[in-house]
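Sanity check

After download, print the first record. It should look like this:
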Amino acid sequence: MARPSTAEFPPSECSASRTARRAIPRVAAVVTVAGAVAFVGATPAFAHVTPQPDTATQGSETVIAFRVPDESDVADTIALSVTMPTDHPITSVSTTPIPGWNATTRTVPLNPPVQVDGETLTEAIGSVTWTAAPGNRIAPGQYLEFPVLIEFPTGVSEVILPTSQTYDNGEVVDWNQPPNPDGSEPERPAPRIMLTAATPTGRDQSAAPGSGNGPRAGETDSTARWLGGAGLLLGALGLGVGVGALLHARRAAKRN
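Expected structure tokens:
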């Protein structure tokens, strides 16, 4: 059998065909990487029960919203309970109505009593519990915020608030672990409020809009959404470029 002549298959066309075939797996890799970038950029950090904001001023009354995501794949959240410290007692807590949820504040005796600003305290706020009314819950993939007005103590730099989350299948998740000795986050960290010293005027700068003393409620969430949107945009652009290159390479292969 006679070999094809170089006139029938010019070297330039043979080279173009080989280049197109080699480009296909490379383009496929580009598409895969672009998809991975989109996924990584759009995936939020692992969610926990977190306070919003996580800073306040000593001795101030500050609204703290406990952001509660449902991390289960099969169960709904039906209750949340926040335990208040007794070594530095919290004497005043106020809740606000949340449709479909009932709030209960419990006081506990202090034994021995605690001296605060020259006053002897024999009881303090022990916990605040929110329970879902029938037909209400936090479903998987959803979250809800539970605001509470807290009068923070003085003479302490932080307040740790162990929290338990109850699911409708009976599971109870305790968010009660302090930071690890090396400063890293534990598996189930307890919500923690960092307290700053009051200003000479006594005003609560942590709650003032634009004060710059720590993130405001929703600020962290907005940043996460912006980063997620940017990741999706970059991923979409990379995916579009990769798909276009793949189609071009296939058409070149067919022509040759």
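If your output differs, re-run the checksum step. Summary of this record's structure: Confidence is low (pLDDT under 50) at residues 1-9, 27-45, 202-222.
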